[in-house]
Amino acid sequence: MRSTRRQALLAAGASLLLPASALADVEHDQAKATLAAVLKVEQTALVAYEAIANSGVLKDVLRQFLDQERQHAAQLADALDNLGAKPPIPPRRAGIPGLDNALQSRAAALGFAMELESRAIAAYQAAIDATVDSNVVRTNAGAMGTDAQQLVILRELAGLNPVPHAFETGA
User: 48: closest CA among 100, 8, 88?
Assistant: First the structure.
């Protein structure tokens, strides 16, 4: 996402008031928080997709997604570790709102999975905006692209327009 003029002015003002080390600490903390948020979404997807696939709904599709989600979660956990942060604890199935309903039908599972992928895309976008490490940005951009491809597949399966916008930003 692009910064607004107000955000740019605030950042410029803050840079005059704060020493460089304080700005670096703020950026470091922001990067940790956004990476943890993305990891939480990826962990939720892992738990949810496993449960949905085990129920027999969208089994083949979600099994393929699970391998990619595991890679994303591992990459995010490594990035957090490199920043000196602990990864969040994955949610339990019972703690995922809407999962019980997603286990009931193909349509419900598709809607649930599309919402998760959309949230992941938005979370990756925020993490990319907040991260200054080019390697982490590159890794996150690749994972975000994978999640966008998964969203296209889910939309096709749901009979929706697979690419309704030129650029997917998530929700």
Answer: 100
Give a yes or no: residue 93 inside a domain: yes
Q: Is the separation of the CB atoms in 80 and 32 below 8 Å?
A: yes
Work out whether the CA dihedral 66, 86, 139, 113 comes out positive or negative. positive
| DSSP-derived secondary structure letter, 167 | S
Q: What is the pLDDT of residues 45-94, one digit of tens each?
A: 999 999 999 999 889 999 999 999 999 999 999 988 988 889 999 999 99
Buried b (16+ CB within 10 A) or exposed e, 120-145: bbbbbbbbbebbeeeebbebbeebbe
- Between the alpha carbon of residue 144 and those of residues 23, 84, 110, 135, the distances in Å are 27, 23, 19, 14
Task: Pick the closest to residue 136 from 144, 125, 128, 146 (CA basis).
Answer: 128
The CATH number for 69's domain is 1.20.1260.10
pTM of the entire predicted model = 0.81
Instruction: Answer whether 68's CB lies under 8 Å from 49's CB.
Output: no
Does residue 171 lie within any of the structural domains?
no
**Which residues span the domain enclosing 60?**
31-157
What whole-number distance in Å separates Cα of residue 15 and Cα of residue 122? 27
